[in-house]
Design brief:
Blueprint lengths: L4 E6 L2 E7 L4 H8 L4 E7 L4 E7 L13 E2 L6 E5 L7 E9 L2 E2 L2 E2 L2 E9 L4 H11 L2 E8 L1 H6 L5
Antiparallel strand pairs: 1-2, 1-11, 2-10, 3-4, 3-11, 4-7, 5-10, 6-7, 6-10, 8-9
Amino acid sequence: MPSSLIRITAGPFTFLARFVSEAPVTVARFRTMLPYKQRIIHVRWSGEGLWIPLGEHDLHDLKFENHTSHPAPGHIILYPGGISETEFLLAYGGVDFSSKMGQLAGNHFLTIVEGNEQLPALGKLVLWNGAQDILFEEVEESELKKGRAKL
């Protein structure tokens, strides 16, 4: 069975996240993209959030599941496209997910479970210093417990 844990390395910070069972189709699609490396930038309209534009990925066939316009800090959502561009959004504080076209909702499929205290620092780094590298990769829980995989 595949791991339900994802290590996220964003700039100098490392987080551990867990897939959300209420979004199985989105999780399955995201798994096909792993390991996923990109640049993360600060949102323009939504508040205290970071986003990854996904222009090269066609995800328009994904339907709403476990969707929200107000992800909590540490929640990662996927907006499959439509009235705005396809994107991932990582909330590090208060978010009202929007675009210049208006309110949006994305599928909450991943939640950070370790390293949440670093989220505000990551947000400030991206806001004031610009885009940062971000890497999502699966990690086995058994390897974390044995100390073989670093957080």
